[in-house]
Amino acid sequence: MNDDAQHIRKDLAACYRLVAHYGMTDVIYNHITAKLPGPEPLFLINGFGLHYDEVCASNLYTVNLAGDIVNQPASMTYGISRAGYVIHGAIHAAREDVKCIIHTHTRAGLAISAMKEGLMPLTQTAMRFHGRIAYHDYEGPAVDAGEQRRLVADLGPHNVMVLRNHGLLTCGSSIAEAFNLMCWLESACQAQVSILSMGRELTFPPMDVVEKTAHLYDPSVRHFGYLEWAALLRMLDRTDPSYQD
After folding, report:
1. Distance between CA 136 and CA 151 in Å, rounded?
2. Cβ distance 186 to 108 under 8 Å?
3. C-beta separation of 167 from 109 below 8 A
4. Which residues make beta-bridge pairs with 43?
5. What is the pLDDT of residues 115-153, one digit of tens each?
6. How would you classify the pairing of strands 61-64 and 134-136?
7. Global model pTM greater than 0.85
8. Architecture category of domain 5-238 in CATH
9. Residues 6 or more apart whose Cβ sits within 8 Å of residue 83
10. Most confident listed range (46-60, 75-89, 222-236)
11. Rounded to whole angstroms, how far apart are CA atoms 202 and 234?
12. Domains of the chain: which residue ranges?
């Protein structure tokens, strides 16, 4: 295994641990994937049956775009999630720029996914996603390969998507970027749920201010996520470095 692939394995395992640390897991469900370097399109995914805090660099599965397991860890007897292949395989096949995909079913994410308005520009955290978020209507559990084309079409060029009545999804040009997007998307959803629960009159900034805020957080303007990622890895290294195993 080359150094780049091993580095991706460690970062992806760290991402699983961080999603667990921040309370964004759904028992053994959901999935995070990272594309591997090389001529053949392959990506890493968790074994379906592991809790996120059990994932480490050595027990990630290598899968191709057809959903076939190319490399199964010797210590693992699990398979992979069918929904993980349907969702992630479709995006990895269609978007060369995407190196990591995170999908969650958090309570706040589910709540926002069921709202007709979707994510509203109620907070600075939410405004960063204005005009940069996609929506995909619910078609049932994502196990039908026929949904892949529609999912990719709805995502378009965006890196953030609300799966209606289902959950949240973020993509990134790196694992750090995908996690950063999910972290702040989840925070924005939690804030919206809290704000709406108060039943008070809402205030919205002028649209030009919302658009300015979104522009300032655009990756082409500000490369966010990298300082945070380094700090998060240091935290994991202090508390439980077993993700590197």
Report:
1. 6
2. yes
3. yes
4. 35, 63
5. 999 999 999 999 999 999 999 999 998 778 889 999 999
6. unpaired
7. yes
8. 3-Layer(aba) Sandwich (3.40)
9. 31, 141, 142, 143
10. 46-60
11. 39
12. 5-238
